[in-house]
Amino acid sequence: MRVLMVEPGMAPYEKEINGLEEMQAAVGGLITASYPFAEPVALVSNDESIFLGMPFNRSVEGGYGGICGPFFVCGLSGDSFCSLTPEQMARYKAKYHHAEILLGARGNEPVTIKVEPQTKRGPEPPQRKGLKR
Question: How far does CA 104 lie from the centroid of its chain?
């Protein structure tokens, strides 16, 4: 499936991901999904990102707080993940274009400043081997 990959400090980019192992590799461990938007898309991130000390990535409005570590945005088809449409890809590239620096929190809402992202990909996120649930 064609997804939008969002890494801390980096500009988002398109990536092909197929199967659970590739999803886990993309986020550096066990996956969890959140559904903060009205349209059928998911934000898939590392379920243990805070415990692993992964850096803050982007804020998510609507009481979802923020995401630490790398995540990807994918479409939903029924109860399965699928590719984003070209329109969704463009919309979420624009939405997550700016990197964010976490300054603090006000309730469950992160307080951040938006900065220009790096365009060169950084090192791969730390991974735990052999994870499947």
Answer: 20
In a domain, 129, yes or no: no
Show the 3-state SS of the chain: CEEEEECCCECCEEEECCHHHHHHHHHCCCEEEECCCCCCEEEEEECCCCCCCCCEEEEECCCCEEEECCEEEEEEECCEEECCCHHHHHHHHHHCCCEEEEEEEECCEEEEEEECCECCCCCCCCCCCCCCC
Does pTM surpass 0.90? Answer: no
> Does residue 56 sit within a domain?
yes
Domain count, the chain: 1
One digit per residue, the tens of pLDDT, for the chain of length 133 reads 999 999 999 999 999 999 999 999 999 999 999 999 999 999 999 999 999 999 999 999 877 889 999 999 999 999 999 999 999 999 999 999 999 999 998 887 899 999 999 986 545 555 665 666 5
